[in-house]
Amino acid sequence: MDKFTNILLAEDDSSDYEFFVEALEKISATFKITWAKNGLDCMAFLKTNKPDIIFLDLNMPGYNGRDCLKFIKDNETLAEVPVVIYSTSHYIKDIDACFKTGAHFYIVKPADQNLLGSCLERVMAQLSNTMEQPDKQNFVVGVSTAMES
């Protein structure tokens, strides 16, 4: 957890941002979070900053999470930064696209803050051990594997 003190969250919904921060506060006291309110803000921030980990919402106006993910993975300086998708979408096509583009994990936004905290803790603990993308079966965190197509 301590490895990821500088966190970027690209999220257009202020309630989801606050929910995320509150869950994160329950599992770590040492972090600095930067909030990008849309994909354009995310990419602008990343042109001059390199966070320890990036969380991306998929469904943002303008540049969406997939656009940001591609931007990150195509950038030599940022390509090694772990990217975790944080989205309401549980559609297999979204999950597959993010897996193929190189996201490290995919968290389907839970309604329960303790569950989100557990998901964040699991993802960051695993990334602390290895920065490798997990296999497809362990890519999605926090929901059942029964997803819609």
Structural notes for this entry:
This protein is α/β, with parallel strands linked by helices and 149 residues long. 39% of the residues lie in helices and 17% in strands. The protein is built from 5 helices and 6 strands. The chain has helices at residues 14-27, 39-46, 65-73, 92-101, 113-129, and strands at 6-10, 32-36, 53-56, 83-87, 105-108, 140-141. The longest helix has 17 residues, at 113-129. Residues 145-149 have low confidence and may be disordered.
User: What is the residue-mean pLDDT, rounded to a whole number?
Assistant: 91
Total strands: the figure is 6
Name the strands of the widest sheet in spatial order: 2-1-3-4-5-6
| Fraction in beta strands | 15-25%
Determine the structural class based on helices, strands and strand pairing: alpha/beta
Over all CA atoms, what is the radius of gyration? Answer: 14 Å
Instruction: List the secondary-structure elements in sequence, H or E.
Output: EHEHEHEHEHE
CATH architecture title = 3-Layer(aba) Sandwich
Biggest sheet details:
6 strands, parallel
So, the CATH homologous superfamily?
A: Response regulator
Q: What is the number of domains?
A: 1
